[in-house]
């Protein structure tokens, strides 16, 4: 699959104003509350109905629900602190006046200019207004974990949804079996806790199953949850490589190096002995004559540029893997 990049000057290129960052305190507290909620209901389940079943010789229930809880908790924490595919800020030498076009499977994509991060976004890259970052292969912003879902952590998201479905179903089935086997016993704390755990487990199981089904269809067709990203495809998706290949590229293919690791090297502070490099822009490029000012760390010494890593201030384009 080939990827060709073209650039041509343009006199004026209107672009939207930078998005203001959203308040992050409440969203972070909500994500922490979800982790506490998982630990709270799991503690009730293992301390009361699951304990009663284990004491009566039914060890198969804790043997199944225990690993499922560990998998769910691991995927939730991993998704909370994962890198969705953050693209570092560009250089002041880049500007919105130059039009960049890339080709993916004979389909042209005009790279949109991000006024906040100061670079032309690769295809399927979106600037998240909640996180105030550009995310490669953006799918959506998940408020449950207060993190974006993108190229680098989509497999953790799928693992979390799948483990939550299995864990919720296991909790519901175990609580129902416990209530059935204790019908001859008087009402007790164990029964009350089993009902308290079974109700939210049943409530979460249905939407989680629908979400898992929706994401499975999306992966099979190499589509995105963010609907605006596909408005220009007109029924043809150049990123679709077949159902089996789409699943492999999404869940098993190597992720490649992190962009942020390269950004730390590219955007280090320039010493006083640094001299201005020669003009690397085309002669007719307006951005070389009047570069716009952009916030954030932008100084990039010429010694850090290496062939094959892309020009200074421009993110090296890669094919999306979903």
Automatic annotation (TrEMBL):
It catalyses: L-cysteinyl-[protein] + hexadecanoyl-CoA = S-hexadecanoyl-L-cysteinyl-[protein] + CoA. It is a multi-pass membrane protein. GO terms for cellular component: endoplasmic reticulum; Golgi apparatus; membrane. GO terms for biological process: protein targeting to membrane. Residues 275-322 are annotated as: Disordered. The chain crosses the membrane at residues 24-47, 59-81, 156-180, 192-213. Residues 110-225 form the Palmitoyltransferase DHHC domain. Keywords: Acyltransferase, Membrane, Transferase, Transmembrane, Transmembrane helix. Pfam families: DHHC. It comes from the Eukaryota. It is found in: Membrane. Its main location: membrane. One of its GO terms (molecular function) is protein-cysteine S-palmitoyltransferase activity. Its EC number is 2.3.1.225. Belongs to the DHHC palmitoyltransferase family. The DHHC domain is required for palmitoyltransferase activity. PANTHER family: PALMITOYLTRANSFERASE ZDHHC19, ZINC FINGER DHHC DOMAIN CONTAINING PROTEIN. This is Palmitoyltransferase. It comes from Piliocolobus tephrosceles.
